[in-house]
Amino acid sequence: MSTHIGAQPGEIAPTVLLPGDPLRAKWIAETFLDDVRCYSEVRGMYGFTGSWKGHPVSVQGSGMGQPSMSIYVNELFTDYDVQSIVRVGSCGAVTDRVGVRDVVIASGACTDSSMNRIAFHGIDYAPVADFGLLRGAVEAAEAREGGSPFHVGLIFSSDSFYPARPELLGEMVKYGVLAVEMEASALYTLAAKHGRRALAICTVSDHIVTGEETSSQEREQTFGEMVEIALTAALA
Ligand SMILES: O=P(O)(O)O[C@H]1O[C@H](CO)[C@@H](O)[C@H]1O
Ligand SMILES: O=c1cc[nH]c(=O)[nH]1
Asked: Which residues form the Nucleoside phosphorylase domain (predicted)?
């Protein structure tokens, strides 16, 4: 067991899907994987291991925000020797170019978090996705017939779901940011630190410009396209 994950060594697969919502983790495991077993219920942050098309894979909830996610990712890398992590999250669209339920594949992630500023003494580190996973995800998304629109580009990993200065998002949009979520930037930085692979794929759950939104039940149980893209990119 690690401090926050109740698995024995060897119980977590080298490839992990990482939703923020632990109940999305449960839904993914039950919907997409075979031979599923739950390896952790610590703090209700479920983790499951199963197989997809014969490949071992785990699904671990990360919680909301970079501090929570970083706890699980640090332990997955250092205590369980995980090699690849694909975040399968929800995000808010910040531009008309992106619609609700579209899939956003994050090539890089800006942030307002102090985590990197502390780590790099104020220098702006640029957290980017693993290129192999990114290419695999784009190819998987392109191969889907009749799938939702998908976009590849920058996202913004915010420390605040309810920002004190929402107008700052407008500046990010001018510089190409497509959507906002709360974890990818620190995930990419941790993967670089540990020499592992990471990618964030998010489904748009709500639109900051139009106000359109999905329900919590939809965010938990209906964002399956990004899961199939993630599994194909990481394992096929
Ligand atoms: O749906 P998840 O994966 O949790 O992702 C998004 O949803 C949460 C906010 O509602 C944040 O964690 C944000 O990144
Ligand atoms: O972090 C998030 C996730 C979904 N929608 C948002 O507006 N923010």
From this structure: 16-228
Q: Which of 64, 71, 112, 220 gets mutated to test ligand 1 (max ligand atoms within 8 A of its CB)?
A: 64
Interatomic CA distance for residues 150 and 133, integer angstroms: 15
Q: β-strands 15-18, 55-60: how paired?
A: parallel
Q: Which two tokens stand for residue 69?
A: 């996610």
The H or E element spanning position 224 is: helix 224-235
Closest-CA residue, ligand 2 atom 6, reads: 92
Given the CA of residue 181, which atom of ligand 1 is nearest to it?
Answer: 14
For residue 217, how far is its CA from the centre of ligand 1 (angstroms)? 13
Q: Quick one: which H or E segment has residue 22? A: helix 22-32
Contact 179, 93 (CB under 8 A): yes
Question: Which residues in 54-87 are b (16+ Cβ under 10 Å) and which e?
Answer: eeebbbbbbbebbebbbbbbbbbbebbebbbbbb
Q: Is the pTM of this model over 0.95?
A: yes
Q: Cα dist. 6→18, 50, 72 in Å?
A: 16, 16, 11
Q: What is the pLDDT of residues 61-115, one digit of tens each?
A: 999 999 999 999 999 999 999 999 999 999 999 999 999 999 999 999 999 999 9
